[in-house]
Amino acid sequence: MELPPAVPFVAVVLATVLFLVTILRRWNHPKLKHNLPPGPRPWPVIGNLNLIGALPHRSIHELSKQYGPLMSLRLGSFPVVVGSSVDAARFILKTHDLAFIDRPRMASGRYTGCNYSDVLWAPYGAYWRQARRLWKTEILSARRLRSHEHVRDEEVRAMLRDLYGHGPEAPASAAAGRAVVLLDHLFMANLNAISRMVLGKKYVVHGGTGSSAAATTPEEFKWMIDEFFFLSGALNVGDMIPWLGWLDPQIKRIKRLGRKFDRFLEQVLDEHNERRRREGEEFAAMDMVDLLLELADDPNLG
Description:
2 domains; 2 strands; mainly alpha; oxidoreductase; iron; two-stranded antiparallel sheet
């Protein structure tokens, strides 16, 4: 089958543009001489991305067998030094932890981390230290976790009732001998416990409709969690080669996920703010969102 006449011309134009862009980037950003550890020779534009498979940690482990416990790679436009021994991990994570504490600014943190403003993605500094201290002393303190012990106990008991076929939605004939997907039950038990502790109630329920509908369905929320973990760990073209970010199909997925998270959190915050306005001076924090909203109004915090 013959290609259309325009195809060879377009291919030549694209190849020429890529070549010129590479030359201009090298001209404007002269290569600095660093005493880098050994590593595979990078290709133009993509660097060593051709050596990274579907499981990046395994690919890097195999490369470390050849180049040693401290090696250098180039992932697209960015040089990377990989430490894969106990001594290298101690040097990076303990001896010089402040120099390596920041996470790279990736698309996932921009669109699902409120433009790098949450504890996971925020750069090291006064804001990060204050947020981390609040989480340790106010949100996840031993005292506050003990106060929610009854929530965890109730959700575990509810999961066991469902597993034994005695839940409110289970048929009477399903008391024994039925196959269950344990992972789904564990996921919902953890989700319900965390939702009650953090948000004050179960926001993910089956069959919500009307004005009092749930913020999302269990299936949609599970999709959001799975999508979040996948996209946070995936090698995105735009993260590795920024000037080719407009070609990255995963950016659309990240933006879509960010919009769904925003809608969910907006409903949660609206309901909590409404209760604060309704109760006025009698308002008392009942969950972690209430506590965070109180801390947000504290003029003594940065």
